[in-house]
Specification:
The structure holds 2 protein chains of 2 kinds.
Chain A: E1 2-3, H1 14-26, H2 36-56, E2 63-66, H3 69-82, E3 90-94, H4 99-110, E4 114-118, H5 128-134, E5 139-145, H6 157-171, E6 177-180, H7 192-195, E7 199-203, E8 214-218, H8 244-259, H9 261-282, E9 286-288, E10 300-305, H10 310-319, E11 322-323, E12 325-326, H11 339-343, H12 348-352, E13 354-358, H13 365-384
Parallel strand pairs in A: 1-11, 3-4, 3-5, 5-6, 6-7
Antiparallel strand pairs in A: 2-8, 7-8, 9-10, 10-13, 12-13
Helix pairs in contact in A: 1-8, 2-8, 3-4, 9-13, 10-13
Chain B: H1 7-14, E1 27-32, E2 39-47, E3 52-61, H2 64-77, H3 82-86, H4 90-96, H5 105-125, H6 137-144, E4 148-149, E5 154-155, E6 162-168, E7 171-176, H7 185-197, E8 204-209
């Protein structure tokens, strides 16, 4: 199998599985003081906190582990919004956020919050002028993302952080800034101070860690109210027995990520370039979704193949054991075209034929060459039987 | 819940029967699905003495189930008289494929609509028979039986989701009852408008969620 859907989820690295196995067998106690096995589990969590914290310029007790990035986003947004007493509160995000963020915003709108969804340009970059214009003394929260999962755009997080800092000064209080870094962790380094983020969400399964684990950075001093309640282990934000096995896996995944980070990013960038060149050379009538070059996540490629439909392309590739994703309405459970492609100005038909290729450090030249070799005749064949004809050359 | 195609769907998707164009077809028609943007064109070659379908081909701008239903519907129609072919239902097409995921049932409606439209065109243009359907509540109701509720793949009339149909000098008003939050509300409203607009004499369509 050639797996090119790593923005959805990744293979668990063998070393990660080994670390999880060890944790499950040896470190199964509930983290606590005084007993040897309890201390061992607590140290496991501390080590994981320290490693992630060191990578992003944070400190150990600013990191908590969650059940997923979705849960981290919920804790961050709901927990921070509810901890503030603001008259007529307003919340700000963009049109192209991850579904978890948009779902929390919808839920907060029902609680009486006014939400602003800032627009993006044709390549998915945030409109920071619009961001600046909507921030005011009522703003309770801003949530943005590091890399867009559908179109690979690297967002201007630090410049957005400056805009929010200016607005905070005008408002006379800190406006909490949440960053969804789930899709960015694989290819982007993060310094929480440079970005001026107060809250950052992470996902384990996007970097070859296990599913069922995420993390949340909470800057010291950020006012938070827990959204779930129970026995406290190491943080009131995440009550209950910690998933030590999952955390051990995530920790190993973070260790592996940074051990070969620059080399892996270059490797993925060159493979993506190889695939992009191949597609551009062999397939006419295509549109690149998202930016080119350095403004795009190194492992990400997304094209619309015009005059044909993405689910059909995806299924033909699947029969050849090549796994990709599509933003076609046909493949969506809602029968709607992907909202991010619509937000960057693609019409329904252009979204219809979109295919997303997302690589990992395990991807090889042979993977990319095989995928291209299979893709070309699939597109030709579907075009030959389509009701829509390319314009005559 | 896993959305999975039957082996028969995959087989017809991989190697669709009757794919292509008939040059000098006796009739052809294109139908589009507002639900997900798919489109199908059906071409007919008909023996004018017997009104039997000698050849039928189709093209698809669509997903796997669109291609598979086009394949199966053209298989079913080939060799039949136009009246027999017109009687083929989307349920038959879906059954022949061993079933379709509920959310994909509208693809079989699309394929059947394509075939029927081509036959009606032939009847009108070649045979001079024009079904001048009068615009009334019954016609609109019949047309709305082609609009499926995606979660279950059953039409909105059978599911009693249509609460009122009003007609006033070509302006059709349809009242449906769908949860305002439902993710399928918008695609379903679009599909109602698309279908009702096709009926002869319709000047405007208004859909209200009550």
């Amino acid at each position: 199998m050639i797996y090119l859907d790593n923005f959805r989820s990744t293979m668990v690295a063998p070393e990660v599985w080994e670390a999880m196995h060890t944790a499950a067998i040896d470190k199964y106690a509930v983290p606590a003081a005084f007993t040897q096995c309890g201390t061992g589990a607590a140290e496991l969590i501390e080590r994981a906190q320290n490693r992630l914290a060191a990578a992003i310029g944070a400190s150990q007790n600013e990191i908590v582990f969650t059940g997923s990035a979705t849960e981290a986003i919920n804790i961050a947004l709901l927990g921070s919004a509810r901890a503030q007493a603001i008259d007529k509160p307003e919340i700000v995000t963009s049109e192209i956020e991850y579904p978890a963020t948009l779902a929390v915003y919808k839920a907060l709108e029902k609680e009486g919050y006014t939400a602003h969804y800032i627009k993006v340009d044709g390549e998915g970059r945030y409109d920071l002028d619009q961001l600046s214009s909507v921030l005011n003394e009522h703003t309770a929260m801003v949530s943005l993302m590091g890399v867009n999962h559908m179109i690979g755009t690297i967002e201007p997080l630090a410049r957005a952080g400056d805009v929010i800092a200016d607005a905070s000064q005008r408002a006379g209080r800190k406006i909490p800034y949440h960053v969804d870094f789930a899709s960015a962790l694989q290819t982007q380094r993060l310094d929480v101070d440079a970005v001026r983020a107060d809250l950052v969400s992470f996902s384990s399964n996007k970097i070859h860690g296990p599913k069922g684990v995420g993390a949340l950075y909470v800057r010291k001093g950020t006012r938070m109210r827990p959204i779930t309640f129970g026995a406290e282990s190491y943080s009131p934000l995440v009550p209950g027995t910690p998933n030590t096995m999952g955390i051990a896996g995530f920790d190993k995944a973070v260790e592996l990520l940074y051990a070969t980070f620059d080399r892996d990013v270059e490797h993925m960038r060159s493979l993506v370039q190889r695939l992009a060149t191949g597609i551009q050379t062999h397939i006419p009538h295509i549109l690149l979704n998202g930016p080119e070059g350095a403004e795009r996540a190194a492992s990400h490629l997304c094209y619309s193949f015009l005059f044909i439909e993405g689910e059909a392309i995806m299924m033909f590739l699947d029969m050849d054991e090549i796994i990709v994703d599509t933003g076609s309405a046909c493949a969506a459970a809602t029968l709607k075209p992907n909202y991010i492609l619509i937000a960057i100005g693609r019409n329904h038909e252009q979204a219809h034929g979109s295919i997303r290729f997302t690589l990992s450090r395990y991807s090889t030249e042979a993977d990319v060459d095989t995928a291209l070799a299979k893709l070309v005749p699939i597109v030709e064949r579907l075009r030959a039987q389509s009701t829509i004809r390319p314009p005559a050359e | 819940m896993a959305i999975k195609y039957t082996a028969k769907v995959i087989e017809h998707f991989k190697s669709p029967h009757n794919i292509g164009i008939i040059e000098n077809a006796d009739a052809s028609a294109t139908e589009g699905s507002p639900a997900c943007g798919d489109e199908i064109t059906v071409y007919l070659k008909i023996d004018k003495a017997t009104d039997r379908i000698e050849d039928v081909k189709f093209q698809s701008y669509g997903c796997a189930s669109n291609i598979a239903t086009g394949s199966i519907i053209t298989d079913l129609a080939k060799g039949k008289t136009i009246d027999e072919a017109e009687a083929i239902t989307w349920k038959q097409a879906a059954d022949e494929l061993g079933g379709l995921p509920p959310v994909k049932m509208h693809c079989s409606v699309l394929a059947v609509d394509g075939l029927r439209s081509a036959i009606l065109k032939y009847k009108k243009e070649v045979k001079g028979i024009d079904y001048d359907s009068t615009l009334d509540v019954k016609t609109v109701t019949e047309e709305l039986k082609h609009v499926l509720w995606p979660p279950v793949g059953v039409d909105i009339i059978t599911l009693q989701m249509v609460k009122y149909i009003g007609i006033d000098q070509g302006a059709v008003k349809v009242e449906v009852s769908i949860n305002a939050d439902d993710k399928f509300l918008d695609p379903t409203v679009d599909e109602i408008i698309e279908h009702v607009s096709k009926i002869k004499g319709v000047k405007s369509v208004g859909v209200e969620n009550v």
